[in-house]
Specification:
Low-confidence stretches: none
Distance between the termini: 96 Å
Number of helices: 6
Order of helices and strands: HHHHHEEEEHEEEEEEEEEE
Number of domains: 2
Number of strands: 14
Helix content: 25-40%
Structural class: alpha/beta
């Protein structure tokens, strides 16, 4: 007569159930990782139930739970695996792994923002800590912003949350319109995040413009510069000059290698002040009569000025 070894039936039930669940998930193309993590305590419940059934049905006066070596090893592995799964679940590691497996990198459209600029606005100040921007002239008296973002997300709710963080903040003080683009830090591959943003800005022709940024990647169409402009920060600035532009460019840099492009820069060495030994270089370029002025102060990075 065969003896009942505790663990055999439990192991069989668990293996059958796991096999059926995994097979069903493959047939229906459903991810079951999250469901398995939620229901793993049933492993302990099945093992405990088998022990109780064995003790209740045993015909011995003082029944003892009997295991063979292989069953003890399997139970040991199952218990340790259950404890480990609980620890990993409690610390959120498995949730991050699950999110990483199910997330996708995609490109989405940024919601367009259109801010009407009234006649009282003489200047627009744009603060952009980091990002990629293309600046062009608007055909209307409005400041317009739109673009694309590369995001790492699982669903539409995460996309909506990230896009809300990308919306610029605008407010007017006197004759100045302030536009601030918030910096959305990248949080790694285990959380929803924005990898890259490229915005297009359409500016009205009647206002002066000031752009400040710490890590700019700026592409400027000279047709947008209809008044005096000022750009300050770090990064890459690409300026395209073409007729009928009427523009005078003055760029202050720390090194001559920061001035590039096919334009013939007129370079002058200077210092910040009479008491300061720091040397700067001023690069100048005039197109037409130079009625509109563009001044750039670039601490690091490069200015590419190309005439077409």
């Amino acid at each position: 007569m065969r003896r009942w070894r505790v663990g055999t039936i439990s192991l069989g039930i668990l293996l059958i159930a796991l096999g059926v669940i995994i097979l069903a998930s493959q047939v229906r193309q459903v991810l079951i990782l999250k469901t398995l993590l939620q229901w793993w305590p049933l492993i302990l419940a099945v093992l405990g139930l088998e022990i109780l059934v064995y003790l209740y049905t045993a015909k011995e006066p003082e029944p003892k739970v009997k295991y063979d070596t292989f069953s003890m090893f399997l139970i040991f592995v199952v218990v340790l695996g259950s404890i480990g799964a609980y620890a990993i679940t409690a610390t959120g590691i498995m949730e991050r792994i699950y999110w990483t497996v199910t997330s996708n990198i995609m490109t989405v459209e940024l919601p367009a923002q259109n801010v009407k600029v009234d006649e009282n606005v003489k200047k627009i100040v744009v603060s952009a800590p980091r990002g990629s921007f293309t600046v062009r002239k608007n055909s209307t008296q409005a400041f317009t912003s739109f673009g694309q973002a590369t995001v790492n997300v699982v669903g539409d709710e995460e996309i909506d949350f990230l896009l809300r963080q990308c919306q610029p903040i605008t407010y007017q003080a006197g004759d100045t319109l302030f536009v601030q683009f918030l910096s959305v830090p990248w949080q790694g591959d285990t959380k929803p995040g924005i990898r890259e943003i490229h915005r297009t800005l359409l500016v009205p022709p009647q206002a002066e413009v000031e752009i400040n940024g710490s890590q700019l990647n700026l592409e400027l169409d000279c047709q947008a510069v209809q008044q005096d402009w000022f750009i300050k920060g770090n990064g890459l600035i690409d300026i395209t000059l073409a007729a009928p532009a009427d523009l005078a460019v003055e760029a202050q840099v720390r090194d001559l290698s920061q001035l590039s492009g096919n334009a013939a820069w007129e370079v002058e060495e200077t210092s910040a002040s009479a008491t300061n030994d720091d040397v700067y270089y001023l690069g100048r370029m005039k197109w037409g009569d130079g009625q509109n002025k563009l001044k750039i102060i670039l601490s690091s990075g490069q200015i590419s000025l190309n005439v077409i």
